[in-house]
Amino acid sequence: MIITPAARWTSRIWLAAGFLFLYLPIIALVVYSFTDSPVPNVWAGFSLRWYEKLVGDEDIRHALFLSLQIAAASATGSVVLGTLAALTLERHPRFRGRTLFSGMINAPLVMPEVIVGLSLLLMLVSMQRLFGVPERGLTTIWLGHMLVGMAYATVVIAARLRDLNPQFEEAAQDLGARPLQVFFLVTLPMIAQSLLAAWLLTFTLSLDDVVMSAFLSGPGSTTLPLVIFSRARLGLDPTVNALATVVIVVVAIFVVVSSYMIALREKRLQQEQKAAMKAAG
């Protein structure tokens, strides 16, 4: 297929437009975090006053710490439960109730988050009336986020398990390894990258969730997205821009470092494979 110069330039223009649509608002947000104006989209000279105000804003600091706690806990729980669910679905393709089990795992992916949040709220209120626990707060938000995150983690991990060569696990079993040993010594190292990807995905989903947190939060358990949303209705100042800039910088550093580590690991694996092939030859 011959690509004409006009088609090549058209594709480049559409690509540039797509990148501008995605990243221009982020760049504008970062730039206006340094404005001296109290209006978040008006430039009135360079200033760091909003970063100083951010450091002294106890509500935002408390909400950020709470959101990080919930996101880390829900991501960890989602990966653990998602790994168990993925192993069940991929290593046991036939068992009674498999269709129902698969449907229940995937239901949070297709159901509106409002419906999931409302149903969880009604269930937790009923449990609190009957047993006195749990009270709406950190625990209930964590349960709701983990419910949704488990579905995403299951999809990511199951896709990796589906691509694994079962001969490695069978060889370990032939050598006398028990099922737990096979999982921890053979399967787990091969799906480690998918576990990390699932953890990062569910961490991000939990960190920026608004709908589920709004239903399940209680007094003293307001997450960062809820704080920003409540302030947006009253009028924002560039403090939110400063907070977003800090988050963007931290995430960018983490992505660069993790990508570098993954690239080093893949390079080392390729070198080990080449050395093994030479030794076998």
TrEMBL record:
One of its GO biological process terms is: transmembrane transport
Its GO CC terms are: plasma membrane
TM spans (from-to): 12-34, 63-87, 99-122, 142-161, 182-207, 242-264
Ranges of residues in domain ABC transmembrane type-1: 64-258
Membrane topology is: Multi-pass membrane protein
Q: Does the keyword Chaperone apply?
A: no
Q: Where in the cell is it found?
A: Cell membrane
Instruction: Give the family from UniProt.
Output: Belongs to the binding-protein-dependent transport system permease family. CysTW subfamily.
**What name appears for this protein in its UniProt entry?**
ABC transporter permease subunit
